[in-house]
């Protein structure tokens, strides 16, 4: 039965989609079956893994609005154990189209149900809003992972997100918990990043991932090549950081302990037709 993790923060530019892509890819490289669901109309989670929008591509819009089975929109990726359910710009209109639909907050939860037995982890990338699409993601999730930028306004909007998750837990999804807070865009040369980290760890004691995600050129470049960091440049700081975050997540679950996300393991997880791929960008 899959563990469903939503990656959410209504503040844009915090590394949410980058986190969704790379955590999903690193877990998949450990030979766990992973589905990445792109619920952001910008569709960057799909394009960051080489799946691009076109008029014939069925997407999460069709799942939410037209009741198309989730598994009918799933696309394979370069990694054998990673699939993607892509988004499209049409999803931006879903909230209006679903406004009068009974059980509109649970559309994604109902759609995911048949896929739970097919995967070990389902990762949901959410839009930078707290609208109906995000509510659907949080209603479907077992936990929410919150990326938080290591800058002065890091806590801006976080209280509203925590309030929303508490409300959803109370009214729609009693099993929802916090997977953790992940500090992103961290610059060790900057005293401000260190101060923000100290405050966040103090305020959310025991809920912050040990590993932080650094600012990293390779991490920024990888999506433009349609690759996760571990395939674009395995040894880059960004790749290593997300491998460690994936290790933290996997270590929490019985079937995730003592896993390997080594370079050799990553190459073994690449699909046969893509075996010529390099791990050094």
UniProtKB/TrEMBL annotation:
Coiled-coil stretches: none
Transmembrane segments: none
Domain AAA: 3-177
Pfam family of the protein (one): AAA_31
Domain of life: Bacteria
InterPro entries per UniProt: AAA_dom, DNA_Partitioning_ATPase, P-loop_NTPase
Protein name per its UniProtKB record: Chromosome partitioning protein
Organism lineage: Bacteria, Pseudomonadati, Bdellovibrionota, Oligoflexia, Oligoflexales
